[in-house]
């Protein structure tokens, strides 16, 4: 029988080993999954994890997809540290895209270097404002932010759908539910000629550094951690939980909004009904997989971005459903949560009571 | 009212009950789970797996009974995954629940790919003799399928179990003070695992209802947030089964109003109207959470807390 | 032929229990005879609780043997213990607040009979043993003493042959304790055995006829407590003589009023909280002011308002050095020279999974100059923690050690030291030595006395009357959310304070009962 034994101090080694174990287990389970579907496991895994990175296009697409994940996850991690469960990043991303898109449409055919920063800023503000709703409801009415922020995801999807079907529909778009293509001054400059990768990728390390300073060096970050680990100690020390709730939710919302703004001013170039393949949800996984630590999150975002590409590749090469991406992402999170037990506990093999006497 | 108007009223009432039924199942299951002190946020994932399993079974030609059983079993299977992590390995319950939801959404879409767009025979209605003949009330209340009746009967059954039986007393005790329950000698993890499994079975049935009866087909993500709404309903119900039923019917009403509003010529676009159930959830949550004391008095004191027997 | 000697009701042989990094029980032998009240003595951390949890089946021994009435037995769980005839009253009650007395009894006994019938039996037993109880009341509405009665009645309903009581009087007034002893004597007269855990020597000497003493997880000795003195028992328990703290005549009369609480009232904020009614007292510079009382009489609520975690409507109801602070949070009160040591060390006074350096930052960030433009100066937090560890002799591996890894006594020394090194003008301490070993307790008492002698106003809230009498200049008593007038410690007896703890406030020479 397995027995869990509390360690006197959390194991630092296991903090790093657990995600690696989780990844290894996911790859193994993925192999089993492919085998069950009748594919040879190793080639199928190679298709999923390796083939997408075979050329420059693949690598640039990889970084393009990792960027929103990293930006959102770094910000969400601050909240998760403080026990603020913002799972509305998907909605905040969409709200940011709507605000940025609206600004870009308002500045249609306006030129100037200030246009793009304005559009991006609008995205940040839009996302933060969307996240301010659950923050306000939690602070003022004690309403659980998990449920309110999640409900707002559905509302945001519908709001975007309404806008692109109705008031913002492109006049020259043959009734397709989409806005006009934004003009050049509102589009992200490309980083590599001929590829979709844009300068926004640089925001990822930037946000990671900011998050790291907040988390590891600032008193605000200390307060977040104290409140997250031991609310009573935060109350004893006089740390206001409301400030932490408001800051972490709105920072998360702002960064999700930035990610949304960069999606529509980058690879998409207009507002369409679906601006994100679930980045807001996957970022939650990235935050956990990255140990709620900015450096870890950058790596986790790369891995999870790969699962999007792997899903595409597997759909084309093997004909499996695209949802294989979500299956892999879910498995990673499961295995990680399971492996995390090793951080706080030692697993001991123990004999049943009878044999011990 | 004319006869036609009465018939419309009956139809709307019946539709409301049908829209509420998956919420009733899911909320009641989660209510029992939470009464045992476990917060399982994975309802959405369990529902979807229940839906796809039930639909797949029916599509394969098995009877409706087998399909419902498959839905419940899929929910239980998913809930065991949660129980293993959150109870067995003492992982954070919030994170485990999120993982279950994300995984369930993906896995159900994955295994259900080939089922998209295929038809099955819907779960048949079983009008109750005599009662279904009553004007208005008959077609509104007594002409439903077996799952609707089951969801309604589950309310008194669960109330009786929780508040009138010794096993229910133990379950509530475990949710209120797991350390004391352990010291007295109750198997906290065993009780909780059973409660989580029950929650999984009910969520699975909720999903089965969606894909067998409510809209007899399989669509990716067809629960569209109902799992999360059910979670809010448990809070709204302050952990009392009959209030969960009332809350679910309220939401059924909102859903149906939203669907019918356009027929009645309300000049608001479909997307805006479709926001209503989600906005209503937020409003309801705010109204009930405003009174912190009320929540604290009713919430199981150990809800979401990790139990460690060695301390 | 002589009368055959009956086997001991319970005999333990070589019981050993290991935890990671510590040996909680090391080869313990113990025998309890029928009709005997047997004391299990030892200071905090000696291994008493572990041992009785093994007897009651909550824990399993790694080695050793349990004999019940001469027969070797295995006790896998509490249900097995109850089946043998072992009942246990826990120090931390195993009760369910939102449920009735009868429901609690049903849960605790596993008795399948219908609740109304069980309720009748509860009433019967409580009447027979003088343990007044209403079976229909909710536990949340009961006083601590009544809750203990629920635990005892729950055990008695199963007709136990051995009753284990873990520090039963720590939550009782002296008068309630006396009533409990009466009940226990009646049980012994019926031939039942009692295993009585305590570190209060006086009550063991009047109640028990045999004692087993544990020290550091080992058997330290066996004796007949009736033939020992409190001093000889203490030596056996601690293994050394401890000098009691010496409190010189304080400056209670002359010091400037530092903390003034003036007609403070507070409605309950959470379910089951005690409302505070019209509380007034003054703590002067250089004085140690004690607040006694049984837990649950409003101390937690009062401490919340004093620390600033609970704000009060009338700012003037709490004044520090004349300034109204009732609307100020903890950080602003700290800036005005207040230090605070909460009752709950791990999980309020310290973050368990953070290092001692981080825990220094928790409350000393301002006084220790550990911040600069919103960023943390880690070197200062570390050196502050190091200074606390050195000055107050905290046994820890260093400022990087997690708070969770310290023993209760050492963590308390760290927290008290952290507050003292911030040079507070006013220090509020809740349960300074609760669950702390004797050495650490003596050190903490010395530190508090030295602090007061340096001119700080010290407020101590404690359930331990011996402690209050040892270090305080004046003592007031909390009961039902009200505070009695303060009495000079030297001119008051334990009995008088005990009366006040029971809610009998002598005002203007006439006695009146505080409403229940």
Outline the structure in words.
The complex is a heterotrimer of chains A (about 350), B (about 300) and C (about 525). Chain A has about 350 residues and is mostly helical. Chain A is built from 15 helices and two strands. Chain A has one domain: ABC transporter involved in vitamin B12 uptake, BtuC, CATH 1.10.3470. In chain A, strands 1-2 form a two-stranded antiparallel sheet. In chain A, about 55% of the residues are buried. The longest helix of chain B is centred in the first third of the chain and has 33 residues, at about 5-35. Chain B has one domain: ABC transporter involved in vitamin B12 uptake, BtuC (Orthogonal Bundle). In chain B, helix 2 packs across helix 10 (about 225-235) and helix 7 (about 165-175) crosses helix 8. In chain C, the strands form six sheets. In chain C, strands 13, 16, 19, 20, 21, 22 and 23 form a seven-stranded mixed sheet that branches. Chain C is globular. In chain C, helix 3 crosses helix 4 (about 115-130) and helix 13 (about 410-420) runs parallel beside helix 14. Chain C has two domains: about 10-240, Rossmann fold; about 255-335 and about 425-515, 3-Layer(aba) Sandwich (Rossmann fold). Helices cover about 30% and strands about 25% of the residues of chain C. Chains in contact: A-B, A-C, B-C. The interface between A and B is large, with 47 and 48 residues.
What's the main sheet of chain B like?
none
Biggest sheet details of chain A: 2 strands, antiparallel
Question: How much helix is in the residues of chain B?
Answer: over 70%
State the total count of DSSP E strands of chain A: 2
CATH class of chain A: Mainly Alpha
- Rg of Cα set of chain A: 22 Å
CATH fold-level name of chain B: ABC transporter involved in vitamin B12 uptake, BtuC
The helix count of chain B comes to 14
User: Largest chain interface and its two residue counts?
Assistant: A-B, 47 and 48 residues
Briefly note the structural class of the backbone of chain B: mainly alpha
Q: Whole-Å distance between the termini of chain A?
A: 16 Å
Number of strand segments of chain B: 0
Share of β-strand residues of chain B: under 5%
What's the tally of helices of chain A?
15
Helix-strand category of chain A: mainly alpha
Summed over residues and divided by their number, the pLDDT of chain B gives a mean of 92
- Fraction in helix of chain A: 55-70%
According to CATH, the homologous superfamily of chain A is: ABC transporter involved in vitamin B12 uptake, BtuC
Q: What's the CATH architecture of chain A? A: Orthogonal Bundle
């Amino acid at each position: 029988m397995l027995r869990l034994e509390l360690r006197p101090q959390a194991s630092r080694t296991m903090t790093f080993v657990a995600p690696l174990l989780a990844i290894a287990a996911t790859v193994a389970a993925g192999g089993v999954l492919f085998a069950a579907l009748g594919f040879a496991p190793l080639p199928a895994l190679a298709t999923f994890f390796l083939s997408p990175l075979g050329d420059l296009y693949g690598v640039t697409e990889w970084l393009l997809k990792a960027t929103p994940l990293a930006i959102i996850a770094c910000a969400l991690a601050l909240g998760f540290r403080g026990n603020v469960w913002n799972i509305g990043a998907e909605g905040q991303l969409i709200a940011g895209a709507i605000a940025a898109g609206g600004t870009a449409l308002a500045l249609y055919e306006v030129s100037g270097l200030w246009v793009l920063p304005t559009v991006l800023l609008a995205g940040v503000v839009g996302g933060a404002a969307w996240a301010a709703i659950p923050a306000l409801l939690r602070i003022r009415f004690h309403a659980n932010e998990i449920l309110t922020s999640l409900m707002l995801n559905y509302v945001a999807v519908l709001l975007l759908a309404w806008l692109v079907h109705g008031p913002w529909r492109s006049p020259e778009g043959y009734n397709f539910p989409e806005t006009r293509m934004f003009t050049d001054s509102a589009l992200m400059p490309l980083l590599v000629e001929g590829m979709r990768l844009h300068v926004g990728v640089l925001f990822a390390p930037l946000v990671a550094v900011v998050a790291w300073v907040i988390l590891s060096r600032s008193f605000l970050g200390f307060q977040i951690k104290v409140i997250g680990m031991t609310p009573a100690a935060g109350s004893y020390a006089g740390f206001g939980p409301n400030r932490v709730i408001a800051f972490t939710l709105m920072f998360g919302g702002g960064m999700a909004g930035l990610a949304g703004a960069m999606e529509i001013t980058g690879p998409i170039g207009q507002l369409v009904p679906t601006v994100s393949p679930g980045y807001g949800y996957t970022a939650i996984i990235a935050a956990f997989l990255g140990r709620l630590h900015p450096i870890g999150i950058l790596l986790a975002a790369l891995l999870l971005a790969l699962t999007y590409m792997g899903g595409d590749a597997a759909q084309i090469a093997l004909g499996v459903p695209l949802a294989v991406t979500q299956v892999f992402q879910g498995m990673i999170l499961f295995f990680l949560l399971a492996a995390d037990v090793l951080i706080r506990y030692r697993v001991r093999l123990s004999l049943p009571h009878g044999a011990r006497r | 009212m004319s006869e036609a108007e009465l018939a419309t009223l009956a139809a709307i009432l019946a539709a409301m009950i049908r829209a509420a039924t998956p919420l009733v199942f899911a909320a009641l299951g989660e209510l029992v789970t939470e009464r045992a002190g476990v917060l399982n946020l994975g309802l959405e994932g369990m529902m979807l797996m229940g839906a796809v399993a039930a639909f797949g079974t029916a599509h394969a030609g098995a009877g409706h009974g087998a399909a419902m059983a498959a839905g419940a079993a899929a929910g239980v299977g998913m809930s065991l995954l949660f129980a293993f992590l959150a109870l067995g390995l003492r992982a954070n319950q919030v994170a485990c629940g999120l993982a279950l939801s994300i995984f369930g959404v993906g896995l159900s879409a994955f295994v259900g790919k080939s089922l998209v767009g295929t038809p099955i025979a819907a779960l048949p209605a079983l009008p109750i003799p005599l009662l279904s003949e009553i004007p208005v009330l008959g077609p509104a209340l007594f002409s439903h399928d077996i799952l609707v009746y089951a969801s309604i009967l589950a309310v008194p059954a669960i109330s009786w179990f929780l508040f009138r039986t010794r096993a229910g007393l133990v379950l509530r005790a475990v949710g209120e003070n797991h350390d004391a329950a352990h010291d007295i000698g109750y198997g906290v993890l065993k009780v909780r695992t059973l409660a989580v499994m029950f929650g999984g079975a009910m969520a699975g049935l909720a999903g089965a209802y969606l894909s067998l009866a409510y809209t007899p087909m399989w669509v990716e993500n067809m629960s569209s947030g109902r799992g999360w709404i059910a979670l809010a309903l448990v809070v709204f119900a302050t952990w009392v089964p009959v209030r969960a039923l009332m809350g679910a019917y309220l939401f059924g009403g909102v859903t149906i109003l939203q669907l019918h509003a356009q027929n009645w010529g309300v000049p608001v676009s479909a997307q805006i109207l479709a926001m209503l159930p989600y906005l209503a959830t937020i409003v309801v949550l705010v109204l009930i959470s405003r009174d912190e004391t009320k929540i604290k008095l009713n919430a199981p004191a150990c809800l979401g807390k990790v139990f460690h027997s060695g301390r | 032929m002589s009368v055959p000697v009956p086997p001991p009701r319970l005999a333990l042989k070589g019981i050993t229990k290991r935890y990671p990094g510590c040996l909680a029980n090391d080869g313990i032998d113990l025998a309890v005879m029928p009709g005997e009240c047997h004391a299990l003595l030892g200071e905090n951390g000696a291994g008493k609780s572990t041992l009785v949890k093994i007897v009651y089946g909550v824990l399993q021994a790694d080695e050793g043997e349990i004999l019940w009435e001469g027969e070797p037995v295995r006790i896998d769980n509490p249900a097995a213990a109850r089946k043998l005839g072992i009942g246990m009253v826990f120090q931390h009650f195993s009760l369910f607040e939102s449920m009735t007395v009868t429901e609690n009894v049903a849960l605790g006994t596993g008795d399948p009979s219908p609740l109304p019938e069980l309720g009748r039996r509860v009433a019967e037993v409580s009447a027979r043993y003088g343990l007044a109880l209403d079976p229909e009341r909710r536990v949340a509405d009961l006083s601590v003493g009544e809750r203990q009665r629920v635990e005892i009645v729950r055990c008695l309903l199963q007709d136990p042959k051995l009753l284990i009581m873990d520090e039963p009087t720590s939550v009782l007034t002296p008068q309630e304790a006396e009533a409990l002893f009466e009940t226990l004597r009646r049980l012994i007269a019926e031939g039942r055995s009692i295993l009585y855990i305590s570190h209060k020597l006086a009550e063991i000497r009047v109640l028990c006829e045999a004692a087993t003493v544990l020290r550091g997880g080992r058997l330290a000795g066996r004796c007949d407590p009736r033939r020992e003195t409190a001093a000889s028992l203490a030596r056996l328990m601690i293994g050394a003589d401890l000098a009691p703290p010496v409190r010189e005549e304080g400056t209670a009369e002359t010091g400037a009023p530092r903390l003034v609480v003036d007609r403070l009232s507070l409605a309950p904020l959470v379910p089951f909280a005690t409302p505070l009614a019209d509380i007034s007292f003054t703590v002067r510079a250089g004085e140690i002011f004690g607040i006694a009382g049984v837990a649950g009489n409003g101390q937690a609520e009062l401490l919340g308002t004093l620390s600033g975690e609970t704000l009060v409507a009338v700012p003037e109801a709490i004044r520090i050095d004349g300034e109204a602070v009732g609307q100020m949070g903890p950080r602003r009160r700290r800036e005005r020279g207040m230090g605070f040591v909460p009752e709950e060390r791990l999980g309020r006074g310290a973050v368990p999974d953070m290092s001692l350096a981080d825990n220094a930052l928790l409350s000393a960030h301002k006084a220790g100059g550990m911040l600069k433009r919103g960023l943390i100066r880690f070197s200062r937090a570390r050196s502050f923690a190091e200074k606390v560890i050195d000055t107050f002799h905290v046994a820890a591996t260093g400022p990087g050690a997690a708070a969770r890894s310290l023993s209760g006594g050492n963590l308390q020394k760290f927290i008290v030291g952290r507050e003292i090194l911030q040079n507070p003008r006013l220090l509020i301490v809740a349960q300074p030595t609760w669950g702390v070993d004797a050495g650490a307790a003596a050190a903490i008492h010395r530190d508090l006395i030295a602090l007061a002698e340096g001119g700080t106003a010290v407020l101590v809230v404690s359930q331990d009357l011996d402690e209050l009498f040892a270090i305080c200049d004046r003592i007031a008593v909390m009961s039902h959310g009200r505070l009695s007038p303060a009495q000079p410690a030297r001119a008051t007896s334990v009995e008088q304070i005990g009366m006040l703890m029971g809610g009998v406030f002598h005002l203007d020479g006439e006695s009146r009962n505080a409403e229940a």
